[in-house]
Recover the amino acids of this structure.
């Protein structure tokens, strides 16, 4: 079966430091165990943005200057029947996170997404329901602690996961 392909550019919030290292190690261990793709730990704030890349990067820079850091709180393990949401940590949809998503959507000419479902993916692919349930129980014991979203990242998410790459990163620092 051919790996699904994503489109465009995406805005991500990524953990830093120890939280990043632990999530990256979890994703790598699961990828090795299950034969799935490896990817950087992230929460997608806004996916599938069309280029040109320079316009998206410039708009993301401005957007980052309009938001200060805020907390992200993982709240459980879940899975879905879609490739890019196979297994993930749910993240509480705080007021600050919803406001950041809505602001980003408006900046890129989109309506805020009322179905925004913040999460940190752990596995991309398709898993048997029994395997997914076992992994969910296992991962529930490894839930990351709340962490600060301090930077807005722009990623090229065109094509397969192996083709994705970072374009830019900006500190969340509101202009005063």
């Amino acid at each position: 079966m051919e790996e699904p392909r994503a489109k465009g550019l995406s805005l991500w919030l990524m953990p830093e430091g120890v939280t990043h290292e632990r999530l990256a190690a979890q994703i790598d261990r699961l990828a090795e165990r299950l034969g799935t793709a490896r990817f950087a730990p992230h929460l997608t704030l806004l996916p599938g943005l069309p280029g040109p890349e320079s316009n998206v990067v410039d708009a993301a820079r401005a957007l980052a200057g309009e938001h200060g850091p805020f907390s992200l709180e993982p709240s459980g393990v879940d899975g879905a029947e879609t490739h890019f949401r196979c297994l993930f940590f749910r993240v509480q949809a705080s007021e600050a996170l919803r406001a950041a998503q809505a602001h980003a959507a408006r900046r890129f000419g989109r309506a805020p997404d009322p179905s925004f479902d913040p999460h940190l993916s752990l596995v991309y692919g398709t898993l048997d329901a029994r395997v997914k349930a076992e992994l969910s129980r296992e991962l529930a014991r490894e839930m990351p602690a709340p962490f600060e979203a301090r930077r807005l990242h722009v990623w090229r998410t065109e094509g397969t996961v192996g083709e994705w790459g970072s374009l830019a990163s900006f500190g969340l620092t509101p202009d005063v």
Q: What stands out?
A: The longest strand covers residues 43-49. The helical segments are 17-34, 53-64, 95-107, 129-140. The chain has one domain: 9-171. The two ends are 51 Å apart (CA to CA).
